[in-house]
Write a structure and sequence with these properties.
By secondary structure, this protein is of the alpha+beta class. It has a domain at 83-344 and 408-446: Cytochrome P450 (Cytochrome p450, Orthogonal Bundle). Helices cover 51% and strands 7% of the residues. It has helices at residues 29-42, 73-82, 91-101, 110-120, 126-148, 156-173, 182-195, 213-241, 250-260, 267-297, 300-312, 328-340, 372-375, 396-399, 417-420, 429-446, and strands spanning 57-62, 65-70, 87-89, 347-351, 355-357, 360-362, 367-370. The strands form two sheets. The chain has a five-stranded mixed β-sheet. The two termini are 41 Å apart. It binds protoporphyrin IX containing FE (HEM). The site of protoporphyrin IX containing FE has 22 residues, from α10, α15 and α16.
Length: 449
Amino acid sequence: MHAPDPDVSKAKFVPPAPKPWADSHLKSAWLRSAAVLPTVIRNPIESFSAEAYQSPYVMSRMFQQPMAMVHDPDLLRHIFVENANLLVAAPIRQKILKPALREGMLTAEGDIWRRARRTIAPVFAPRHVAGFATSMRNVTDDYVERLKHETGEIRIADHMTRLAYLVLSDTLFSGDLHNDSENVIADVAYFLQNLSRPDPIDFFAVPNWFPRLTKFRGSGALKRLRNSVRITAEQRQLRINAGEDLPQDFLTLLLKTRDEEQGGLTLDEVEDNIITFIAAGHETTARALAWTLYLLAFDPSARQRCLDEVDALDIDGSAPHEWGESLPWLTACFEESMRLYPPAGIITRKLNGTIEHGDFHLEDGTVIVTSPWVLHRHQALWDHPEQFRPDRFFGENRNRINKFAFLPFGLGHRVCIGNRFACKKLRSSWFNCCVILSLNIPASLRHGR
Ligand code: HEM
């Protein structure tokens, strides 16, 4: 059940990727775990062996912990959709993220998560997308204008990180963040740099209160960032109470959920969720944009097709949130980029219970790992997975791709909330906004960059 092979005749760009982990074949699970641990900490994508790219699943152990690496669409659906009620966050992920994100939606569980998801869902509803898209367009227009005046070589990844922050800050707080300055941008960068790195002792049964040396580095930045978010939220709340006319950004919308009915978010939860949106939405978007531009830079004909689409679009005569509809090729390039370089490379859960599916058996307590990176390059699912071929996602080909073979936004009930609220016209609100962002950049590339 390969995704279609639309065009085998032309030589295609093969972007770089690390080699799979060369399994040491050590007999002892403990020694094998110790051998792979530094790689897991440095870049977990590199810790998957060649077998993971070929088999539906691979069972293993990380020290004492039973693990299942699952990369089969049918099994993934069975686990993450049909047995979603048996899954909880993997302890290792909670150890890494929870101290920073607390009860934000990414790390909350049980009733707190359910209430947050239900309360926040309307904020991502299509009716708010138009406003967000316009704000994204304005921020991006300004940014591209500045980029045009840069001379010499530019590091596109750094620019996309900055642009993604500016967009996020505008849609979250309309640029009102208390103390918004170079310092906050540096704090966000520092916070994100240190956020998702595990500390070696996270892999052992060491209690959470035990200090992790590697976490000290980001803690000052996180404290300052939280403080700024808190002050901004309190000031905005005062303005809501005073009945002022306010921007309909995330902050206003989140704070308003507090008035509507009992069970809305507490001020602490608003703060945790704003921090979570920064954590979940900043680097992911920046990476998606940077890789798309990188790939287009190496494929002149794909890039020219994007530029032709952009030229044909009536940019000023149509609403930004509808642009994506007229840009099917650019959208295909963007999706192909997220296939090759999924911004969230690993999804983990712990199983509370057992799962049987044909010959497949998962014992209670197993940690389930699925990597969009491995899945998107799986040899049983894609033709020439290593090649950049946007045609896979273009026109009818797109409909032939198994829904559970392409998971840049995750799956099941904890799928990315930005993606969850797709309306008929837009595959997803955030996705569409990313298309808007990348649209402007190829336009600037045309001006000689
Ligand atoms: C290209 C951009 C993005 C990608 C690829 C992406 C990817 C993902 C993935 C894979 C998950 C699931 C994680 C898991 O199951 O463990 C997720 C969850 C989440 N994402 Fe995104 N994301 C993106 C942008 C955003 C943005 C812009 C926001 C918010 C402003 C956001 C907010 C969230 C939240 C709150 C969750 C947790 C949902 C829950 O657990 O209920 N994401 N994202």
